[in-house]
Structure formats: C-alpha cells, structure tokens
Amino acid sequence: MAELVWRGKAIPHTSGGSLLTTGFYQPQTEQLSADLCADGWYNRLVHGERGSTLAALLDEFAGKVDLIYIDPPFMTGRTFKNGAQILTGDGISYRDIWNNDLDSYLQWLYETFYYLYELLAEDGSLYVHLDWRATHYARVILDELFTTRSRKKGAGLKNEIIWHYQSGGRARKAFARKHDTVLLYTKSSQYCFHSERIGQPRGDKKRNHMRKEIGPDGHPIWTIRSAGKLYSYRADSTMSVDDVWSDISHLHQKDPERTGYATQKPVALLERLLLASSEENDLVLDCFCGSGVTPVVAERLGRRWLACDQNEGALAVTRTRLLQETRRNIFALQSVKRIE
Hints:
Blueprint: E1 18-25, E2 32-33, E3 43-47, H1 50-61, E4 65-70, E5 79-81, E6 92-95, H2 102-119, E7 120-130, H3 135-149, E8 156-164, E9 179-186, E10 200-201, E11 211-214, E12 220-226, E13 229-234, E14 238-239, E15 244-245, H4 267-277, E16 283-286, H5 293-300, E17 304-309, H6 312-323, E18 331-337
Parallel strand pairs: 3-17, 3-18, 4-7, 4-16, 8-15, 16-17
Antiparallel strand pairs: 1-2, 1-18, 5-6, 7-9, 8-9, 10-14, 11-12, 12-13
C-alpha cells in the first residue's frame, strides 16, 4: 500500500511516565478531596504533554477506549489566544507553530495516531477533526496504521464527514473555506454505530425524484421506484444523517456556550458523535480537550471519560465546566510524572 514518508519518521516509545493524582472531585461538590468511590472508577482530567500522557495511559487503558475524539492543531502557523472569560495562565490557548517544518508536524501526528490506535478498543471508533491543511496527510497516515496493523476485516476509514458552517470572512482569490473534516476510523467491521439515535425527520421537503401521495390515514407519503421496487416513506419517519453536516452552527463570539477558549467546538457536534458511536458507560478519550466539550458531553450522556491537555488554561476551563454539571462519577485531577 502507499506510505507517507518524511524526515525522521519513527515509531514512538510506548513506555511513559506515571500519573500522579492531586485529588478527587466528588459528584455534586466543588471541593477537592482524597476520597475515592467504592467501585474504584473515576474519570480523569490530566495535565500533561500529549505524548507522555498517552504513553502513561497505555498501562491501564490499552485496547479499552471505546470512542476517541481529537481536535488537534491543524498546522495553521498561528498562536490562539484566550478570550476575556479566561483569566488563568499566559493568555494563550495553544500555539500551532511549526516553523514551516512539515516533517516535524507529520511525525507529531504519526506519534499521536500510533498511541491512539494502541488505546482504541477492537470495536472502538476514532474521530479525527482537522481541516484542509492536514486532512490529506492524516488520511494516509491513518490508512497505514489501521490497515497494516489490524488483522481484522473492515479496518480503516468509515467516513469523511464534512462539517459546513457559516462564519465571518470571505476570500477574494479563492472559494471561501467554510468547513472542517472529521475522519472516522475503526479497527474492524464490528463497531458501535446507531444512526437511529441521530436521525432527522424526513419532513415534507421533496428529495430526489420522490412522488408525494396522501396515505389512507391522511398523512403525506413519499414514494420512489428503484431497481423494480417501490419504496415508501412517511413524512414523520426518521432519515439517517448523511456525511455533510450543515445543521450544526459554528459558535459565534457572543454565543452563551462560549467559554473564552479559542477554537471551541459546539456541544451539538460532540453529542452527535457520542450518541452515534458509544453506549452508556463506554469510555471516551480526548487528549486535546481544550474547552472541555468532550468530557462535558460524555458526562451528560452517562459515558466515562479521560480528558487531557498540556495547557493550564484549558484544564481550568474544563474543570469549571465539569463542576457546573450534574455529575454521576468522581473525577480526578492528575498530572504526568516523567521517567528520568
């Protein structure tokens, strides 16, 4: 198969440090304590660099994570600053600066994907959120990891989701870039997917060459003939979502959901992904948790979670959002102790 090659390409070391626990936040409290719940499980909010954190998680969670969502740096060459809502840290959400060194960025992506592949369960799902700058590189790297390392049929790319949104700014010498790409990869053909949970009402709008009729009960019915068969659909029936999403809005600057963290993604986007690709009590991981949307949505939907970031401001925003939620489980604050 085709392989992407760059200067310094190497498999990362899988031996990492250990996780140090600062304390635990009990459900419905905002006070840090040293007590753990009876069954021993706790969600984790980890402060640490992505590589050392993922390596440290391998000892306990290799092959056990049911859903992974990441929204990593896109190699924009920019420094993203916090909004006025965030008063902690140096005012920087994150630096996406690579000094135009594509080789370094590709190695960084490769290491990230390698660790995530090791953590992902055999029937798990990996969602990678990028844009036009890096999606094409990510696909080739992910194809290499998922199709050459998995022994099961059906491993690899399942969807290339286009998230189309409206936001300010229009290019004069190119078509306006108004979409992100979310890649869905799995280790096999056996993975969790529930289109019925996120389906949309078919409605009265005409689609394709369907004919509108009125059924015996007086309700509209849409019919279409294909390959000699007649298909009928009620207007109030559920229609599965396609791979171009324009019904989820980009967060505008005054949106009440805004936390002040740059590049924050909307709750509705993560709700759709988690509802489609995970069950209650499944384990969800986001190693670039940023504004905290992934653990917040996981908490609301009854999923367990692991959330990580190297930015102190991101951890502060995420902790604040989580403490405002009605939580089912304890969550711990942790950091990575590197092996010298």
